[in-house]
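Page 42, continued from yesterday. The earlier attempt failed because a stray header line got pasted into the input along with the sequence. Redoing it now with the clean sequence only.
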Amino acid sequence: MKNVYFLSDAHLGSLAISHGRMQERRLVRFLDSIKEKAAAVYLLGDMFDFWYEYRYVVPKGYTRFLGKLSELCDMGVEVHFFTGNHDIWAYEYLARECGVTLHKQPLTTDIYGKIFFLAHGDGMGDPDRRFKMLKWIFHNRACQYLMSALHPRWGIALGLNWARQSYIKHKETDEATYMGEDKEHLVLYTKEYMKSHPDIDFFIYGHRHIELDLMLSKKARMMILGDWISQFTYAVFDGEHMFLEEYVEGESRP
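This time it went through. Structure tokens are written below.
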């Protein structure tokens, strides 16, 4: 039985990350190290800091990462790509050119007899009205049409600079700190969701850039995956056990 892997939040291409090329290469080396033992890889959002597909243009770069995704898919590994709040605007390119399965909504799925609820996690339980308004704007078809009317030179530059300011703001306000079980929005959302979905075994999220492994009941376990900027963390399910791991250069566990 092969392993199933979960990771998120690489924010590739971020103008605020000085070690971006090293970061991408490290991610690619990790994917290369697991390719023979992986049945599936779930990328739970914000793998790119900004991604917008024009009809005939996509953002430049990411060739090592996209090539490795294509290789995994060609080998028969299932690669599931979830859009996050930074790469909402993925449409057909990644599926058509790389072979990934694209998810724009949370997914409930059976993996080796266990029920998983998988989502990026943005907006879930978060009462921030400004964030909800931005999310509505970003998903609005009319706003997307207006964005598509911009020349890619300006549209992609605008997106990358917006993402850079967002990253700096979150870092300065220390938002990526665990707020506690009674205040963490994703924990509160999950506890409420469990009431009407008692069959779920694992809730897996990205978005928050924190590592969290929490038993919510005798059955339900919740994880937040950290990031691939400074933590290089991922979860792996072997069909029986779930582990939250850190990728150390030159090794991959279990």
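Notes: DSSP finds seven helices and eleven strands in the chain.
Reminder to self: strip header lines before submitting.
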